[in-house]
Amino acid sequence: MSEINIQNLTRDYGSGKGIFNVSIQVEKGEVFGFLGPNGAGKTTTIRHLMGFIKPREGSCQIQGLDCWRNRDVIQSRLGYIPGEISFFDDMTGNEFLKFLSDYRKIKKDNRIQEMLERFELDPRGKIKKMSKGMKQKLGIAAAFMHNPEILILDEPTSGLDPLMQNRFVELIAEEKKKGKTILLSSHMFEEVEGTCDRIGMIRNGKLAAVDLVETLRERHMRTYTVHLDSPELARDFAGDFNGICDGSTVTVSAKQSLETIFMNYYGGDQNA
User: How far is the C-alpha of 20 from the C-alpha of 51, rounded, in Å?
Assistant: First the structure.
């Protein structure tokens, strides 16, 4: 059984808004990337997984547990970073992390200090005085503190500077090696391409594609034909670019980046 199992999930808000017949399976130890423009249905899907919304049609399960009926168990087990993080602003960062530790009944051998050091966050200040980036780091610490086996991450690097984004990508790669199961919604194409095994692209609430990252790139291969002045130049050019030489003509095939494939699917829509 898949660790994350979404079957025919539908939530129709009217006027074409919502999600329609979405089915996604994420296997144990897999990092699954979830891409789509703003309003495409990524966050609605994730909120169903977290048990914040009751399915009207279809179902979603995590480790065989119904996400709505067993939402308390699921929320205590999972690592979750919401797309828009909200805190108890009058708390300090330390107080918030202690509150979560008590709620989750986490033992002292947790990963809080590791995360604070990795992302260079001092949690002693009031949350209401923290910057967007600091709050995002606090959200990361909260998601990883109890060393969860499954992580659901909605735009996890939002507000982070490039250095901290790179550190987060390194963290995901480490968790992947440990066999963690991760659903990652992100608009950072390098982040998705560098960490995810498969990706799903959603548009207007419907899945447009689900495939291995490499398979998707191969399927969207572009071929270029170049005419050179002589067969000798053509052979040199073909050798440099791994092309196929035919007299003075060279044919070169190139895989597209994930960002280019995304734009082919979505045209002028907003980025995820």
Answer: 18
